[in-house]
Amino acid sequence: MRTRPLTIYPATPARWDDLASVFGHRGGPARCWCQYFIDPEWSFDASEANRAALLCQVVGQHPAPGLIAYLDEEPAGWVEVGPRERYPNARLPLGDPATWAITCFVVRPVARHTGIATEMLEAAVDHAERNAASRLLARPVDTDGGRLPGGDLYTGVLSTFLSHGFREVHRRGHRVVVELALPRD
């Protein structure tokens, strides 16, 4: 059980350096910068171009393209969430413009196993609701109760989504499409 305080904020230009520290300088996040689902020309080897693309999204998109989690006021995690149309490579069903998607989670190694991914999911749902989304989609991995390498968990874990009211709509191997209907005013 985590006892250290967690806060979560939208990614804004003023928080760019914090977001960059979450992605770090090595491993998958440092090369991808959450561009895989966005860019049809995506390349894992184009880390600087991917970084620049995410910076442009943080600076130029409203609503914010994701949320940054802070553990003890230190940047600790990221969740990418936004309108489904932003993610042509997401392998998620298309919907009306009010359909949103959660595509990626990044949690710094020092913050793993603290439960922040669960709280980032809750914050992503709230962010989508505040921005008039009607439905939220994701494609988490079913761990079948076992453990998978951290690099396989970047889309989230199925059990976390199911415990937050998402329902399974399609399954292909360990990857599962889930959805959550959001209340409309």
Automatic annotation (TrEMBL):
<feature type="domain" description="N-acetyltransferase">
    <location>
        <begin position="6"/>
        <end position="185"/>
    </location>
</feature>
<dbReference type="InterPro" id="IPR000182">
    <property type="entry name" value="GNAT_dom"/>
</dbReference>
<dbReference type="Pfam" id="PF00583">
    <property type="entry name" value="Acetyltransf_1"/>
</dbReference>
<protein>
    <submittedName>
        <fullName>GNAT family N-acetyltransferase</fullName>
    </submittedName>
</protein>
<dbReference type="GO" id="GO:0016747">
    <property type="term" value="F:acyltransferase activity, transferring groups other than amino-acyl groups"/>
</dbReference>
<dbReference type="InterPro" id="IPR016181">
    <property type="entry name" value="Acyl_CoA_acyltransferase"/>
</dbReference>
<keyword id="KW-0808">Transferase</keyword>
